[in-house]
Design a protein that fits this description.
135 residues, Alpha-Beta Plaits, 2 domains, 4-stranded antiparallel sheet, two-stranded antiparallel sheet, binds iron/sulfur cluster
């Protein structure tokens, strides 16, 4: 079994398609939706974590390509260097998947690696170089 994170971008005419249902039912993939932004008649974006065999993953990716969905596999690794983090929260409002978040009562920032899609927004904005990307 392999797990991979994929960003899906699709045009307005595909926003009503049961894409995740088909990935599960027809390609036998385990699908974890990390982030979704789908509005009928507007372009959509989904960040999925897909788990399956290579054959299942290849089949699912081929299905998406046939459908006209643009896909981007994420292979970078992002690390939070908590000893450098000052919990300034500059990154939390920019993080598209809420991998970086702040607890409002304590104002403590935390990082959930499983939600990260390696977009590198936090790396750019962090004034203390507390976020690093590994290839
Ligand atoms: S790279 Fe940073 S901003 Fe992007 S998803 Fe990961 S933690 Fe969030
Ligand atoms: S921007 Fe950097 S220092 Fe500020 S909370 Fe995020 S990781 Fe920590």
């Amino acid at each position: 079994m392999t797990t991979t994170k994929v960003v899906l971008r699709f045009p307005p005419d595909l926003t009503n398609q049961p894409i995740t249902y088909k990935l599960i039912k027809e390609y036998d993939l385990m699908v974890n939706i990390l982030r979704g932004n789908i509005t009928p008649m507007e372009a959509g974006m989904l960040v999925l974590e897909l788990t399956g065999t290579k054959k299942q993953l290849d089949g699912g990716m081929e299905y998406l390509a046939r459908l006209g969905v643009e896909t981007q596999r994420l292979s970078k690794d992002v690390k939070w260097l908590d000893d450098r983090c000052t919990h300034c929260t500059a990154c939390t409002s920019l993080c598209p998947t809420y991998a970086l978040s702040v607890k409002r009562d304590t104002m403590v920032v935390s990082f959930e690696e499983a939600k990260c899609i390696a977009c590198e927004m936090c790396v750019t904005v962090c004034p203390y170089s507390a976020m690093e990307v590994y290839f």
